[in-house]
Amino acid sequence: MKTEKKTCKGTLILEDGSVFEGYSFGADINADGEVVFNTGMTGYVETLTDPSYKGQILVLTYPLIGNYGVPGETLHSGLPHPYESPGMQIQGLIVSRYEESYSHHSAEKSLKQWLEESDVPAICGIDTRALTKKLREYGTMRAEIRLEPDNHRMKSSVDMRSVVSLVSEKGVYFYKPSVSAKKRIMLIDCGVKHNIIRSLLTRGIEIARVPFDFDFTKDELDSDGILFSNGPGDPKDLPEVIRRISVTIERKKPVFGICLGHQLIALASDGDTYKMRYGHRSQNQPVKSLIENQTFITSQNHGYAVRRERIPKDFFEWFVNVNDETNEGIRHKRLPVMSVQFHPEAFPGPVEAGILFDEFISML
After folding, report:
1. I need a surface site. Which of 74, 238, 241, 331 has the fewest CB within 10 A?
2. 345 carries an active-site annotation
């Protein structure tokens, strides 16, 4: 168990002029970005390393953060566990209470130490309930984190129009399961969470992971199916990927999309997407299958959604959000193409929707 002290004052300044004051407990650096909130009660290590948060200032609404520290990395098929990417992805962190004392058998450092090592600023002592209510009413907005004295350097801003290029791996990587591989899936990395890879490997699937701009219409690397991953930003900023997906669907290749991948498949099939007021970022979103009449509790992290009134004509709506009736999944009427807005790999979150990986594998 270790104890740390608060440092200088910090301020979150929203683009509408609202000011929230607290104390810095992260890196001594100013930052800007889009402010979003997550209502999860645990799993901050996995959340902060989720590539879908690239370029964003994250508000954690649960009022107790840091109490179990940061665990050391254990490798699973070459991937750091429990990290969902090689490192922290957020621009900044806002919490109500940072727990200075932490205790866990696997903890190797504090959240404060990790933030400092990652060059990420953080503020505690903020009224996150009031901040979240404002974001729910007026929608997500840009903001700045300013530390006192106001002479700290500024963290580089992220161009959200090209943010996928920052989180997608540049090379081609192959992952083999510990057992004899049943099939091979090409994974289009738009900012993939590592647990998607782990979920496939534990099911005996070999993976060819390629960058988002890889031309999979020319070389499918002997894959039996293609999975389009989650990732940050507006799907409409990836027109070439959308075009290639359209070609792949016409070839009757088994296709599965998760989160951003779901939106890209809809756009490639003449559907439409839009930016939500404040998005879904939590571990308890209920979604209902309109086919099986079954409800799953799911983990989600997205600010864009597929427009229900523009479901592609060759698809049927598969899942819908029970809370706000937004679209959560589509499936082709004839071809082996399916996609969901939520995260079947969860982590953190409930794993009951993991059966969708089995559904996809059965289509290969």
Report:
1. 74
2. yes
